[in-house]
Amino acid sequence: MEPKFYRGWHLAKSDMEYKATEFEWALIRFYESFSRFVQTTGMITIAADVDIKYQEHVILHVIRMQDRPKNSATIARLMNRDDIPNIQYSLRKLESVGLIEKLKDKNSKTYSYKASELGVKLTDEYYKVREEILIKRLEEIADVAEKFDRGARFMSLLTGIYEEAARDSATITPQTDEPPPKPKSSRKSA
Questions:
Q1: What single-letter DSSP state applies at residue 134?
Q2: Cα–Cα distance measured from residue 74 to residue 59, given in angstroms and rounded to the nearest whole number
Q3: Domain 48-162 falls in which CATH fold?
Q4: How deeply is 24 buried, as exposed, middle or buried, from its count of CB atoms within 10 A (0-12, 13-18, 19+)?
Q5: Are 73 and 62 in contact (CB under 8 A)?
Q6: Over the stretch 166-180, which tens digit does the pLDDT of each residue have?
Q7: Of 14, 82, 113, 181, which residue is the least packed, with the fewest Cβ within 10 Å?
Q8: CB under 8 Å to 65, separation ≥6 — which residues?
Q9: What is the pTM of this model?
Q10: Which residues have CB under 8 Å from 81's CB, separation 6+?
Q11: 3-class DSSP state of 32
């Protein structure tokens, strides 16, 4: 594509930059669609008096994964998050509405969490609704399983590259047009 057609992206001055920017833009839109799907589908399966947000839904499914209790650090690692206080807030919320149970880890001061009976029932209901309204649509796409497999591997590869780039960017000193401050003299004037 010619640069004049790059949708005016300030981030794209070459074909590669354009394609990366378009991918990132698509990823942002996909994330929003996915979170909206999770939230609305979750509302179908959860009683009206339970108010949990997208992140709590995802955390509940991560806890349910492999039907093994998980602590907040494991949940953070599985989700590629580093905001453990926010995860702990979500865990308290899930526990307060009865979707998870807190278990004290053996020989430790930490806790793990497992889906409660209600949490299992609701995640099973979510599965049924998801299968009916999403999976059946996805199956209409030619070679969808192979596309998901390739896409998941590609996203995992990109996750590592973006993580490394984020670490590198954390070491960059912001540039300003202002001159650096002059050191203060420790000598007192007479």
A1: I
A2: 11
A3: Arc Repressor Mutant, subunit A (1.10.10)
A4: middle
A5: no
A6: 999 988 888 777 766
A7: 181
A8: 78
A9: 0.80
A10: 75, 87
A11: helix
Letter for the amino acid at 120?
V
Write out the two tokens for 123: 């995640």
Tell me the two tokens of residue 190. 């007479």
Per-residue confidence (pLDDT) for residue 134, from 0 to 100 = 93
Spatial CA neighbour of 78 closest among 148, 141, 87, 36 = 87
For the stretch 133-163, pLDDT in tens is 999 999 999 999 999 999 999 999 999 999 9
Pair 168, 83: CB distance under 8 Å: no
Q: What is the pLDDT of residue 11?
A: 82
Look up residue 187 and give its two tokens.
Answer: 């000598």
Domain spans, the chain: 48-162
User: CB-based contacts of 83: which residues, under 8 Å, 6+ apart?
Assistant: 76
The token pair at 5 is 């057609």
